[in-house]
Amino acid sequence: xxxxxxxxSTIINYEGSVMKNLYLILSICLLAACGKGFSxxxxxxxxxxxxxxxxxxKVIYSAMGINIESDFEVKGKDLKLNMQGAKMILHIExxxxxxxxxxxxxxxxD
Length: 110
Fold this sequence. Notes:
Elements: E1 3-5, E2 11-13, H1 14-34, E3 40-43, E4 49-53, E5 58-63, E6 66-75, E7 78-83, E8 86-92, E9 98-99, E10 105-108
Antiparallel strand pairs: 1-2, 3-4, 3-10, 4-5, 5-6, 6-7, 7-8, 8-9, 9-10
């Protein structure tokens, strides 16, 4: 154990502070990875519906030639979309796919 006195005569435990800093850095990295960094194009089995998530928090929903851009945020395993004022929640499944509206499975294509 390394011990040093700082200018106010407080004992500093270097091993403890290194571990705390390491945990803090890892936590920040995990939060950054789970935030706006979510991206990719997800398509249903028929290829008629897709959600293209951008890392800037935007998503483009496409179905039957209609494209709608909206905002999204990641909250745990949920994707919260604001589709022209209508709130929609999609769920990220354990296999990385997304459970879409009415339980439709969306698979990442890129």
